[in-house]
Amino acid sequence: MIFLTKLDGKEFMLNEELIETVNETPDTVIVLENGHSYIVRESMRELQNKIYENSRLQRRARLSAHDPEKPLT
């Protein structure tokens, strides 16, 4: 899950695996698989970076779980 910011400044968490589409109109609009949509302050590029970073951390955690002797670096 990633942290995002609504236009009113309130922060929330979103399961990025449910994202179907993202558009900038110029606001960033996220549409989920279930049809719900969110308008957020983050740009598409920032959203992409958050998703990438979260995926990278999850992969590292899974690898660490398989090899407890290997440090997270």
Structural class: alpha+beta
Largest sheet properties: 3 strands, antiparallel
Mean pLDDT: 91
Widest sheet: strand order? 3-4-5
Beta-strand percentage? 25-35%
| Number of H- or I-type helical stretches | 1
Query: Are there runs of 5+ residues with pLDDT below 50, and where?
Result: none
Oligomer: single chain
**Distance, first to last CA:** 21 Å
Radius of gyration: 15 Å
Helix content: 25-40%
**Domain module tally:** 1
Shape: elongated
Helix/strand order:
EEEEEH
Number of strands: 5
Q: What is the topology?
A:
Elements: E1 2-5, E2 11-14, E3 19-24, E4 28-32, E5 37-40, H1 44-66
Antiparallel strand pairs: 1-2, 3-4, 4-5
Outline the structure in words.
The chain has 73 residues and is an alpha+beta fold. The protein has one domain. Helices cover 32% and strands 32% of the residues. Strands 3-4-5 form a 3-stranded antiparallel β-sheet, with no helix packed on it. A two-stranded antiparallel sheet has the order 1-2. Strand 1 (2-5) and strand 2 form a beta hairpin. The longest helix is centred in the C-terminal third of the chain and has 23 residues, at 44-66. It starts with a strand and ends in a 7-residue tail after the last helix.
